[in-house]
Specification:
Structural class of chain A: mainly alpha
Order of helices and strands of chain A: HHHHHHHHHH
Radius of gyration of chain A: 18 Å
Helix content of chain A: over 70%
Mean pLDDT of chain A: 89
Shape of chain A: globular
Strand content of chain A: under 5%
Oligomer: homodimer
DNA sequence: CACCTTTTGACAGCTACTCTCATTTCATGG
DNA sequence: CCATGAAATGAGAGTAGCTGTCAAAAGGTG
């Protein structure tokens, strides 16, 4: 479990005086690297942006960049949603139909993601479409979300978390969400993401038979 | 040249005299690289196997390896199924229920994949579980399959190939198949893959609502 | 055989990423 | 306030995947 503490963005380091100077600096460095990366990527594209450039603009050494993020892709694909989704899932009444819960939680997650920084959300999905490495890494990270979903589904339906059925359900859902994001980005973010999500959930709810 | 033994592909170069020497050599080189890779990976693992070693054993230069395969991962994740699946899909009567068609075609694809070389199939899925890069690349390549599936679904259901609904259906299916493969490998290939596939299709058919 | 095209190998170069080690920066107890 | 230990950083070397170029070799053709 990657409980790396430090819920990322919505709070600035100054808001948490209870943390030591060391911790606050770490958060600041993390944000500096991310900010530098987003800026450079917007200026010159993902591939043309090197770690060295990122390090330079963030005013750290290249070594430090790798200490904070295992890969270059990871710098752009923040996944802070997992714990939020999980909490929201658990907060719903246990007897609520699963699809209702899912729909509700997804709406919440979208709202959260948008509020944070819409432009960043767009850049991220844009990169998912354009840069295969980013898309791949995103899928990888979503499979972690998948494990989490398995747990949630198992809790709700009383089935075994490790059963094929549960795992397939989770992965089908992940794939569908992924494709929804891609669709949104490919169409220039013109649709309301929430509406697309609803249509996606409709498809999953009724099965692929028709 | 140590190939010629256990040719992975159902056709050996010698069987196709209609091709020029040039074409036959290319096929042979391709197979040599694959064979060398599989052997080395089995001996010392994926990460420990370098392109240089592969080139050496296949008796070609490293440059040539990259000419035949864009990435190291691609050497192990053959995807020759797409055209077969597509052909089989088109060969089914147009009024057959979609899920029946899908089930039939998947069975065919599995039978084909197994007959080819069971051990290679196992090694491949094993690598998918163990090596993230391979798993990622596999997903990437499956999204190509996804495009193809969109076309098939659109043809069958009369919907727009580019519609969100069709794309979500395809991607959910892909995700589910992926997870089924992983499940199979993680459980030591003990189950019959065909049975797992049936259970997966059951889940998709009835929707994730329950 | 001569000529053209395709394939190959050798090599140089870039960059993501890893590892090690010395230096600096923060935390803490006296 | 300082001394000691722990953590974070920077510098540098090294690995390996991957790209590009160019000349040599092999295959095809008249």
């Amino acid at each position: 479990m990657n409980t790396m503490t430090a819920a990322p963005s919505p709070f600035s380091p100054a808001d948490r005086p209870q943390l030591g100077l060391r911790e606050r600096k770490k958060i600041k460095t993390r944000e500096a690297i991310r900010t530098a990366t987003y800026a450079l990527v917007k200026e010159q594209g993902y591939d043309a942006t090197t770690i060295e450039q990122i390090a330079e603009r963030a005013e750290v050494s290249p070594s430090t960049v790798f200490r904070y993020f295992p890969t270059k892709e990871d710098i752009v694909i923040t996944d802070e949603f997992d714990p939020i989704i999980m909490d929201e899932l658990r907060a719903r009444p246990a007897d609520e139909p699963w699809m209702v819960t899912l729909r509700y939680v997804m709406h919440k997650a979208i709202a959260y993601g948008m509020k944070e920084d819409e432009e960043v959300s767009r850049l991220r999905t844009h990169l998912m479409v354009q840069v295969p490495a980013v898309r791949s890494r995103m899928m990888e990270s979503m499979s972690v979300t998948g494990d989490m979903l398995c747990q949630a589904i198992a809790e709700r339906t009383g089935r075994d978390q490790e059963s094929l059925e549960v795992r397939v359900s989770a992965m089908a859902l992940i794939g569908a969400l992924m494709e929804t994001s891609l669709y949104w980005a490919e169409h220039g973010h013109r649709d309301e993401f929430k509406d697309l999500m609803d249509r996606t959930l409709d498809v999953l709810e009724h099965g692929l038979s028709e």
